[in-house]
Amino acid sequence: MAKHIKIFDTTLRDGEQSPGCSMNLQEKLELAKQLERLKVDVIEAGFAIASPGDFAAVKAVAQAIKDCKVASLARALPADIEKAYEAVKYAEAPRIHTFIATSPIHMKYKLKASEEEVLERSRAMVKYAKTLCSDVEFSAEDASRTEITFLYKVLEAVIEAGATVVNIPDTVGYTTPDEYYTLIQNIRNNVKNIDKAEISVHCHNDLGLAVANTLAAARAGATQLECTINGIGERAGNAALEEIAMALNTRKDLYDLTTNIETTEIYPTSRLVSKLTGMKIQHNKAIVGDNAFAHESGIHQHGMLAHKNTYEIMTPESIGLTNNKLVLGKHSGRHAFEERLNVLGYHLAKDQVNKLFQEFKVLADKKKMIYDKDLEALVEEKSVRIKEFCRLGQFVINSGNTITPTATVRLIRNDEEIEEVATGHGPVDAAFKAIDKIVGNGFSLEDYALNSVTEGEDAQGEASVKIKMHEEIYHGRGISTDVVEASIKAYINAINKMLSELECQEE
Ligand SMILES: CC(=O)SCCNC(=O)CCNC(=O)[C@H](O)C(C)(C)COP(=O)(O)OP(=O)(O)OC[C@H]1O[C@@H](n2cnc3c(N)ncnc32)[C@H](O)[C@@H]1OP(=O)(O)O
Ligand SMILES: CC(C)C(=O)C(=O)O
Ligand SMILES: [Mg+2]
Fold first, then answer.
1. Domains in the chain with CATH codes
2. What is the pTM of this model?
3. In 320-414, which ranges are continuous DSSP H helix?
């Protein structure tokens, strides 16, 4: 009988620590609901004390999620632990996740604390967390570089203090599969009362070994695996949930382990994370990359035609990927349209689907073929998860290599038309400056990129922008066959997101 192993998703906490990957409250809620559909066991929703925005997001996730445990990270400090509990206490199954570094280098230079002090603080803070919450996870940060007998001592102390889960992080992605296997096995064999707690592992990808290390730990008897969607996370990222889940699923013969993961929700979740964070998925990424199920060469195609198992060790359908190329056209109906949106990770209210369906028909009249990426761009641009504070009326650009680029932009705000003119370094810069004049500034442009969304002469250009206000980043996307129009729409989209978030915070 296969053993069950738990999946702890930290996309909303460690994943969000990826540079440029921050999400706002609505986005975090949307992702948490998708993680619930994916059936992860634990959602680490954030680090409650890090900022008021983080606190609000952890609390909102705790209130919304019914079927997963919800955790908040906390340093081994009373104020952190209190804040974490204040946010997660609304969950059906709340967890406080407290941590402290145990390696010599972290204790000496970062914490400036002796082994005795760290041991005592670990014990005391788990004990304190237990007075608030019955489920307490303790992480020995940088465990893989910790002196082993000290690690045993700390783990014994926190288990005695009531920790329900002990996590053994490879914080800096330093270990290797053989070494990590032995570490987990040694912990199982040498730590007193280890069977009273779950053994969790948390791997980073600095050497590209995060998933391999996680799987080695699973074989050695770890009972909880920490990971993120698309492997996003601090530096080179965390172990990728989709790779772990599909490795365990595909190699049941080897691991004999089962998870609760609903694998057909993997692809939608991956797309959603990419959209929300603005972090593109490399084409050759395992499981969820564009090429993961593409067969280019003749011998492979011949093999596939003869029998799919010649070159496919899992089916695209098993991760929720169905017919990912040409999808819809102008004769498609609402049901097929909504079904495709679900596959792409968008679960929208009926009125939102109806609104988008009208837009889709307009696009389908212009474009012969509608691809997934056209649909994603449409949803993002039409901003179904945010309020439309302002929208583009019209714009005129005067540009060339011998004149100063000038833009006239007219926006519609509360049915009022407002027009401004500005010059810039190029047509896009001029248009953004004209928009700044209308909406006022106080935010800055952090990033701007332009890509072709699909192939062919009617391919659409997709602009993506990131703007920053009060340390929060807002992503905007815009799509058009005209790249200046795409850029303007992306900028307005980001501004609308920012204004929606500010309105939410005021409520
Ligand atoms: C491995 C990981 O992923 S750890 C999680 C990383 N995530 C984050 O850091 C989230 C974002 N962080 C933040 O917003 C801020 O760093 C905060 C709010 C948490 C803390 O901010 P500040 O109080 O300004 O402290 P700052 O970040 O500069 O320094 C960290 C302090 O916490 C201490 N500290 C670090 N880890 C721990 C711990 N686990 N337990 C107790 N104290 C700790 C450090 O020694 C330092 O203390 P000092 O101020 O007495 O020197
Ligand atoms: C806080 C801990 C679990 C962490 O993220 C790490 O050590 O990488
Ligand atoms: Mg980490």
1. 3-277 (3.20.20.70), 298-382 (no CATH), 390-506 (3.30.160.270)
2. 0.85
3. 334-343, 350-366, 372-382
